[in-house]
Amino acid sequence: MARLADYFVLVAFGPGPRAGSGEGHGQILQRFPEKDWEDNPFPQGIELFCQPSGWQLCPERNPPTFFIAVLTDINSERHYCACLTFWEPVEPSQAPACSGEEEEEAGERPSPSALVPPTQLFAPKTLVLVSRLDHAEVFRNSLGLIYTIHVEGLSVSLENVIGNLLTCTIPITGGSQPDSVEEGARTISLGAGDRQVIQTPLTDSLPVSCCSVALLFRQLGITNVLALFCAALTEHKILFLSRSYQRLTDACRGLLALLFPLRYSFTYVPILPAQLLEVLSTPTPFIIGVNSLFQAETQELLDVIIADLDGGTVTVPECVHIPPLPEPLHSQTHSALCMVLDPELELADLAFPPPSTSTSSLKMQDKELRAVFLRLFAQLLQGYRWCLHIVRIHPEPVIRFHKAAFLGQRGLVEDDFLLKVLEGMAFAGFVSERGVPYRTTDLFDELVANEVKRMRADENQPHRVLRHVKELAEQLYKNENPYPAVTMHKVQKPGESSHLRRAPPRPFPRLDESTVQWIIDQATAKLQGAPPAVRAEKKATVPSGPPMAAIVERNGAVHANSARRLEVVRNCISYVFEGKMLEAKKLLPAVLRALKGRAARRCLTRELHLHVQQNRAVLDHQQFDFVVRMMNCCLQDCTALDEHGIAAALLPLVTAFCRKLSPGVTQFAYSCVQEHVVWSTPQFWEAMFYGDVQTHIRALYLEPAEEDDGPSAKGEAGPTEPGAPGKEEEEEEEEEEERSALDVASEQRRLWPTLSRDKQQELVQKEESTVFSQAIHYANRMSYLLLPLDSSKSRLLRERAGLGDLESVSNSLVTNSMAGSVAESYDTESGFEDAETSDVAGTVVRFINRFVDKVCTESGVTSDHLKGLHVMVPDIVQMHIETLEAVHRESKRLPPIQKPKLLRPSLLPGEECVLDGLRVYLLPDGREEGSGGSVGGPALLPAEGAVFLTTYRVIFTGMPTDPLVGEQVVVRSFPVASLTKEKRINIQDQYLQDGLQLRSCTFQLLKMAFDEEVGSESAEVFRKHLHKLRYPPDIKGTFAFTAGSIYTAGRQPRTAKEKSPSLRTLSRNLVKNAKKTIGRQYVTRKKYNPPSWEQRGHPVPPEDQEDEISVSEELEPSTLTPASALKPSDRLTMNSLVERACCRDYQRLGLGTLSSSLSRAKSEPFRVTPVNRMYAICRSYPGLLIVPQSIQDNTLQRISRCYRQNRFPVVCWRSSRSKAVLLRSGGLHGKGVVGLFKAQNAPSPGQSQADSSSLEQEKYLQAVVSSMPRHADAASGRNTLSGFSSAHMASHGKWGSIRAGGRSSASSLAVDVGSRLAGKDLLGPPQPNGAPSEPGFLRPQRAALYIIGDKAQLKGVRPDPLQQWELVPIEVFEVRQVKASFKKLLKACVPGCPAEEPNSYLRSLEESEWLSQIHKLLQVSVLVVELLDSGSSVLVSLEDGWDITTQVVSLVQLLSDPYYRTLEGFRLLVEKEWLSFGHRFTHRGAHTLAGQSSGFAPIFLQFLDCVHQVHSQFPMEFEFSQFYLKFLSYHHVSHRFRTFLLDSDYERIELGLLYEEKGERKGQQACKSVWEYVERLSKKTPVFYNYMYAPEDTEVLRPYSNVSNLKVWDFYTRETLAEGPPYDWELVQGPPEPVEEERPDGGAPQSRRRVVWPCYDSRLRAQPDAISRLLEELQRLETELGRPSERWKDTWDRVKAAAQRSEARQDGRSTPSSLLMSSVSHHRRSLGVYLQEGPVGSTLSLSLDSDQSSSSTPSSGRQAARRSTSTLYSQFQTAESENRSYEGTLYKKGAFMKPWKARWFVLDKTKHQLRYYDHQVDTEYKGVIDLAEVESVTPGTPTMGAPKTVDEKAFFDVKTTRRVYNFCAQDVHLAQQWVDRLQSCLSDA
User: Is residue 859 exposed (0-12), middle (13-18) or buried (19+ Cβ within 10 Å)?
Assistant: First the structure.
């Protein structure tokens, strides 16, 4: 029995320190009993809790209030203080008397203050009942009764009532089921005619909640309560606010009830008094309630979750994260709560809802809500008993919970919520309270053991869930109200509004202490005589329930644990132990992949256990290596906690598997698997230790017959038995044997009280020694795994010392795996380098000692034993170190593992090896195809092989490490000269050193890890050599020069670097002859003796040209450069210059020739000037330039000063049709711009020289304008361009679009220029006299010359309207932007590591802005093309005139002139615009040491990409193939050829290179010129030729330039790992494919199928196109016949000619048709090509289709839609298979109101249809008539609009079921033929 109430207290108001303020404090007037109970001292501070808001006087009498405050004492016992407060009047007259001294009843008449007017004031007084039981209703009734007796003046003694209340006893909770109602439900009476029934709950452990949970949900709602629930479980601070104290108490009680079966163990104060508000800033978690009056004080709390009960809100601060319940539990709980709280929700949508269901009462709803949470906990903690480790049974059970295993088996390792719950205090209490195997059980134990299966089955059936919830609610309700029949209370209450009566009763009387004390004493004496109340506990073994099941089902995991994988693992292990090493090696990669899956790892541990006999398994070296690799693979995916028990299962194995190194020296597997974080985690070792102890304790009681020394002996040997590997096997073992460790413990606890004292003592000692022996065993095990093999060097430690993810910051030296956990105790002073063995030993000793301390203290090992352990640990460690020294020494002597043979790469002629192969692993980078990514294909990477450094390339050759891929050779290489970035990378692998990542601008990436045998010195040597080769001191150090000469690593620079980067070293033979004429005024008669080979190669033709050519009249000393000191012979110089590419091109374009006497033909508008032949005016220009005829040579020097780098405007191309010219120059200097656009006054005599230069420049531009035939009269100010109509303009060429698109800023093109270019505004007719009618007249006209300049440069310039030139300012990107963009493009196309996100490639590509730059270049080029085509000349004057200018003028010429689209023409274009006009290849390509800092700028590559874009859009316009462009892209950076070296012709002359390219040294030596190489190769193979080449002569191309029309060039993305880049043709010509032959055994020939792997094979070589295949076949057949095979080009030309002839014959018309019918010139032709057999069947005819528009008028500028007709028919189909039975032209009348049109009709018998096309060559038909629908074919009559010249009888009609078609043939005969054919078709059907 227990006391209902411990103390009764009367508390009254006492005035505060500030008299008269109305505030005071509480005073205890009386308390009963006055002496404390022995078992329950009086709680302090009650007076604060009676008035939580403070003691204050009130101006009016308030009604009495009741609430219960909860106080927690030092022993965590809760005391419930029921407080009933009422107000009594204070008499003002008495107030002054009491101000000085305290009187007995001071509380009844406190002093009023001067501030309070002398009205009636009321003071609070509180009756308090203190109890340890929570019977709220009984307390309310009892205090109410006492108050009623006082107020109503009942004739009952208050002393008796209070005495009875304090002596009332009630049954203990959770007792045995009472026999009668009276025992369980106690009826009490306090002696005032009252009666109350107290029902004690059936189970003590279940909380009593009344309606508090339901009220909490009603106030806050489901989501908020769930948030609070999770916050309380994860130990956050929770604060409730409400104006009602009772509500605060209820809310706190409700939240605690939800947490069952966990108990809240932190601060719990449902009502916090105002004076104690600072408690809220405590750092520990709490649940506290505070009155809303103090809400302001709670505002600054940053980490407190505030629940406002009155407002229904929960506020979570930003810094607080409440982890949610794991799914699917969260959603299941949510929906179950909805069903309980809102049953109508399910029926809300029903058309005919049932009559409203009766809702549960509030009390019942409260229990249903609790039942939902009880189910939640049962699901969350199901199977928790399987993860309990029973460490001790006697004298008291010691139980530990294996958290990691629990999380691992639930599949919730990552779940934040469960992790925090398991780490919390509440769960620790749960384990110690409920882990005990033998105790009383309650509802939760039943539920978690027996109902889990049912809950899983009910998951998706709401009605069954609800039924279960209601069943549980019934039980909870019954627990609180076991006897619903006897809940009759009879308690008097005061009358209505009794507190407001005018005649106030006397104050609450002072009670007589002696009376009350006497009653208490009487009762105590009576109780002492009675027997003590013993709680009759019904103890039982707690059911464990079914083992664990994962909450989260793992479906669709990548590594599905299929039986096949486990089979592979088993097979591999059996092969290893049977010694079949080759078989095992084949399976190993598959096993290592399978080991990513958990089942495979478990399977591995089980299989390995089978091969351990007597705790030992000796292996040979290969077996040992295999086993260790598999173990490491298993362990590398283990986290620090080892959730899946893999490390636990391997722990006994690593001490079992070993190999003999030499007699007496054995190496165990543990020395090779230390590299894992799990070994340095204390929690792992603790869980392992407790698991093993449990196994041994269980064995101790299962075999009681064993001797005393049994357990310790077993302790040494036990753990390595297959039977005790850890949790995984434990589960199985426990299923096999009936009794688990918990069952054994339960049985032992039941027997414990019955045992004798001696027997008890003996069992305790046995258990203690078992634990002790296990502690020794684990000290050994830990030293095995923590001490590194080479403790002296401790290399591994240093590497892994940075492991930061452990508990503490790691600075330890323990081991590779151990860093962190032992850091605090390690003396960091000693550093890593000179750490001695003792340091390692010391750290390990400290780690082990800490572990031993913890586990032994928890397991109750005696202090003596513990001291003994501390003494033993250093000896164990020292002993092990000594053993390891021998092992380390012997392991060094092992023969190295057989590595694969190094594959030597094939080298080019002249290429030499600088560094022989260094063993490396080529790691997968971001190109996932090579690693068998999304494209499929084999995992070629990682590959094992070697890296070679030659004078030309960096080459990796090797084999894939995955043997399943087969014997495929992997080659990846790039030219040394193309290296753009080299960086060191860290490799996370114990066997590999750190590596290098090399990135090249040919879009290759070598990500290599050096093998352990490669020392860091070798790697460093490799880097240094690479650097020297990449950046030679001067250009002569590049491969193009050194090829064939013996490589010397440290070649000294021959000449010092000069100041100006554009002037490299001067050729020595020229410098010798230089005269010191720098200061001379005139430079005349320069003689030049060329090298002798020049004369040998080219006999000089006799020329009678003048010896003397005046260069400049007024050379200033400052402008003369060392170049003018050269003295070449003019005659030879001129001869050589004339032969340069640009000169040949000028002649072709008719831009003037050098006549023999250099006399100028005045009729020519332009002339060739040799003014720059000494490169004196402009270093970077060619020797011969085209300038207007009227300009004198002596003015050019002055003009050149206005331009950057002296690059003055020169003509580089002329349109053959419009005669407009294209000029190029550098950008204008500032002064030049200003002068150019000044008013046209005559210069005054005092003008500066700058002005005179500007005038010269203006004259120069005027001369350019005048030299154009149309503008010869432009000097008079007239402009004859105005009549140019838009129709005329649109009639030539193919038009793309230059409207701004993408991100381009080209919208900055001047609006009027742009709109005119698009031909939009129709220009008005000119005035009769050509004079402007108003000043703005010329703006809509075309200017004679447009100057394309940089917007920034031309800012603020307003050209004069009468000038003949106009500025087009455009924004161009700078070289640094191109560099930045290229870097991003490289990273996008060749990322260094695999991408995390799926679309990262496209995003990176967009961010690089590479395509935007291509777009802008094409856009500007099309603009210039348009201007030139319309007859205006254009001067491109951007930057320094050698980067973007070169790109633009080259593209313009390519688009405008079909000649440049041939192989020969493209070569000429590049030689002229890029080489002769001085694009700085060496500077932009960073070829030498000097350019290293500037980096690689891909200007030429960008140009080639633009050409590729045009090529893709117009595939039939180019003679060369896309491969040609890729070839040039590769070799312009490769330095294999000398063509793309140096910055200008001037520098090439210095080095004697310029004329060498003419190829005077024939013979077999390596080509020096790329063009020569292309020429040679083209003779052998059509690799550079485009079969679709079928040009239209007058074609001007206008490509689309929007980013959406551009393609990423496959040069950036493709690679062939079979042979490396395919651009060095000699290296990639593999052996010819075997021809299909009969096999010797007479079997069928083998299939010629080939598997083509992405990223590995070259698709072009594996599967060449049809024409290449046929040409190869021809060559092969000719060789077989013994004929000399003719060149492929000749064959191809003959075939083409034959095709043209046969087509002409087929046509049957007089006009011979060309190979391509190009009736409409301005439509883009498709990519289509089909081959068909000719009429005879002998010749192969090729026909290319063109896409033609329906309207054939050339002037219609409509853009035809592009259709893709890329159909490649088989070349050997018969004419029948073309499905064309009869064809020809017919006129067809359109539908109603449509005209007659000529169409090409094809009658197709096979498909039984009549098709018609726009043109004969079309492949897509316009329409089709199904012959099945034809009813009749009849003669017709001409209708309106029919062809006039045709006979009436040539008309016929075809009637179908839908309509009548009217046809007309060209004559009667043809009409008859058509009718006959149609009739025969119909009759055949």
Answer: buried
Amino acid at 274: A
* Secondary structure of 791-803 as H, E, C letters: CCCCHHHHHHCCC
Residues 1436/1448, Cβ–Cβ less than 8 Å: yes
Pairing verdict, β 913-922 and 313-315 = unpaired
Rounded to 10 deg, the angle between the 362-380 and 462-480 helix axes is 110
3-class SS at 24?
A: strand
Residue 462 vs residues 335, 457, 459, 467: alpha-carbon distances, Å: 8, 11, 7, 9
Q: How far is 629 from 1636, CA to CA, in rounded Å?
A: 45
Q: What's the confidence (pLDDT) of residue 1781?
A: 79
List helix spans (H) across 595-740: 598-610, 621-636, 646-654, 682-702, 710-717, 727-736
pLDDT at residue 373 in the model:
94
Say if residue 1325 is preceded by a cis peptide, omega within 30 of 0: no
Q: Residue 1857 and residue 1860: Cα distance in Å, rounded?
A: 8
Q: CB-hemisphere CA count at 13 Å for 1661? A: 19
What distance in Å separates the CA atoms of residue 1081 and residue 1686, rounded to the nearest whole number? 62
- What letter would DSSP give residue 930? G
Token reading at 726 = 């850890």
Distances (CA, A) of 604 to 561, 611, 650: 13, 11, 9
Q: Which residues pair with 68 in a beta bridge?
A: 82
Pairing of strands 286-291, 267-269: parallel
- Residue 1678: both structure tokens together: 């000719």
CA distance linking residue 620 with residue 633, whole number of Å: 20
Q: Which tens digits make up the pLDDT trace of 74-127? A: 888 899 999 999 988 886 544 433 333 333 333 333 344 434 445 778 899 999
E-strand ranges in 1135-1209 read 1166-1169, 1185-1188
Q: Are 12 and 108 in contact (CB under 8 A)?
A: yes
How much is the average pLDDT of 1022-1032? 92
N- to C-terminal Cα separation, the chain: 110
Q: Strands 237-242, 286-291: parallel, antiparallel or unpaired by DSSP?
A: parallel
Q: Check residue 726 and give left, alpha or beta (phi > 0: left; psi -120 to 50: alpha).
A: left
Residue type at 1847 in one-letter notation: D
**Beta bridge partners of residue 617, listed in sequence order:** 657
Is residue 1443 within 8 Å of 1499, Cβ to Cβ? Answer: yes
In angstroms, the CA 1277 to CA 1362 distance is 6
For 534-548, what is the mean pLDDT?
Answer: 72
Residues 6+ apart with CB under 8 A from 97: none
Q: What is the pLDDT of residue 550?
A: 54
What's the confidence (pLDDT) of residue 1317?
44
How many CB atoms neighbour CB 1368 within 10 A?
24
The two structure tokens encoding residue 370: 């609790």
Where does residue 20 rank: exposed (0-12), middle (13-18), buried (19+ CB within 10 A)? Answer: middle
DSSP string, 1856-1872: ESS-EEEEE-SSHHHHH
pLDDT band at 1274 (very low <50, low <70, confident <90, very high): very low
Tokens of 800: 């892994």
| CA-closest candidate to residue 1612, choices 1502, 1466, 1689, 1690 | 1502
Please tell me the least confidently modeled range out of 179-183, 223-227, 293-297, 821-825. Answer: 821-825
Q: Which two tokens stand for residue 1883?
A: 């009759």
The tokens describing 1783, both together, are 């064809």
Residue type, 1097: G
C-alpha distances (whole Å) from 1638 to each of 212, 336, 1641, 1644, 1648 are 93, 76, 8, 6, 12
Q: What's the mean pLDDT when you consider all of the chain?
A: 75
pLDDT at 1241: 41
Per DSSP, what are the bridge partners of residue 1742? 1731
Weakest-pLDDT range from 806-820, 1029-1043, 1711-1725: 806-820
